[in-house]
Structure formats: C-alpha cells, structure tokens
Design goal:
Strand 3, helix 3 (65-75) and strand 4 form a beta-alpha-beta unit. The protein is α/β, with parallel strands linked by helices and 238 residues long. Helix 2 runs parallel beside helix 3 (65-75). Residues 212-224 have low confidence and may be disordered. The chain contains seven helices and nine strands, in the order βαβαβαβαβαββααββ. The longest helix has 32 residues, at 158-189.
C-alpha cells in the first residue's frame, strides 16, 4: 500500500465523542480522516474535498442523515455513504438503502466492523484508481517524440502533419499555376516565330536606310544583295 492517502473518509456526527472514536479507529496508512460536527459543514467538506466515504449520524439537529445522504449524492453520486443511528428501525434502513446508502449501521458501531468495511471500500477505491489510470493511458497515449538534428523536438502529430503537408502541397500547386500562367502570357505576347531575331532586324533596318544590304564577304569580293522591302524576302546564302 502506498504511503500517500488514496482514500478520504468524512465522519459527520454532532456527538464529539463519536467523532473522536471513529477518527481514531479509522486512521491508518493511506487513509485521510475528516470530521464535521455540523451537517452543513460536512456538506461543504464534501464539495471541497470529495471524500470517497462518508459516515453520518442519522439523527442530528438542522439536517438528518437521510437529507445528508441526498445532498452528498447530488454532489458526487460515486460516494459511499454509511448511515449510523442509535435508533435502528427496519423501515428507516430500507429507505436509506433505497436512497443510495452503502450501509446502515446500529450504534454503538463496532470498531472492527467499521474497519473491515472501510478496508473493503479502500481496496475497491484502489482498484478504481488503477482502472481509471489505465483507461486514461489507453485514451490519451503519450505521443512519440521525433528527434531530428537541428530541429526542435516535438510530439508526433499525424493529423497536424497531414494538414501541414496538404497546405504545403496546395501552396506549391498555386505557385506552379502562377508560373504556368506567366509563361503562357509571355508566349502569347511573343513576336511571330517567322520574324527575324531582334539583332538581325536592327541590322536590316540600318541597311535599309543606307540603301543596301551587305551579305557574305569572301576573300575575293563582297556580294551586294538588292534591298527588299520585306525583311522576310531577304535571301539566305549558305
């Protein structure tokens, strides 16, 4: 059994002697005992501390044990509530069990009996705690950590990584579309493929102004070619 408290027990009784007796009898490793001599104070402790077990007297001023039972179960239906009374009656016991009490004991309460009941409830509480811990581990497993040189470590998030990949893919597709549109626009604005290159066009225009076009020059002579009004009609010599 662990040294820290795994079970919290609240005792509500307007009799100080009963409170002292029960708190001493229930004290032990792994058990935290809270006491309240006023039922309203006990209800506040239930709301604040959430004890797993509540032992309450049946007859008390201001609020009886059945009312305490109802208030406790409203706050936490999983709480085990044990009623104690010096005025035992079968009708009251049946009513208490129907309203959700875990047990109904007659005063004076046997210390060995109450210890045995608390021990069983403590074992059940430990089992529930382990089951909840296992359930939490199954529902919320620890994610593996990626280790990449130069990149800060972060948990692996399949859904997040998939979203990031899709965003990057959409961004790349958009960039590719912009590039394709730009090249298509350039192709549409490009000059007729039959037009001569810009350098040749400038030379032809210059020679047109001078009145002749100088063709290929050989070692013996320069061949003079008549000027044509259309640069496309300029013959090509090989």
């Amino acid at each position: 059994m662990s040294n820290h408290a795994v079970l919290t027990v609240l005792v509500i009784d307007d009799n100080p002697g009963s409170l002292e007796l029960l708190s001493s009898a229930l004290a032990g490793p792994g058990i935290e005992v809270l006491t309240a001599s006023d039922p309203a104070e006990g209800i506040d402790l239930v709301a604040q501390r959430r004890p797993q077990i509540v032992l309450t007297d049946l007859v008390m001023p201001g609020m009886n044990g059945l009312e305490v039972l109802g208030r406790v179960l409203e706050i936490d239906p999983a709480t085990d509530v044990i009623l104690m009374t010096a005025h035992y009656s079968t009708e009251t016991a049946v009513e208490a069990i129907k309203k959700g009490a875990s047990d109904y004991l007659n005063k004076p309460v046997s210390v060995s009996l109450i210890r045995e009941k608390i021990r069983k409830l403590q074992e059940d509480a430990e089992k529930r705690q382990k089951a909840l811990q296992l359930q939490d581990e199954l529902l919320h497993p620890r994610l593996p950590v990626r280790k990449v040189r130069g990149v800060p470590e972060r948990p692996f998030d399949r859904a997040g990584d998939t979203r990031h990949f899709r965003q990057e893919r959409r961004r790349g597709e958009a960039d590719q579309k912009d590039a394709d549109d730009h090249h298509r626009e350039q192709a549409q604005n490009r000059a007729d493929p039959l037009d001569p290159p810009p350098a040749l066009s400038r030379r032809v225009e210059k020679d047109r102004v001078l009145g002749h076009v100088t063709g290929m020059r050989t070692a013996e002579r320069a061949v003079v070619i008549p000027v044509s009004q259309n640069p496309r009609d300029v013959p090509t010599y090989q």
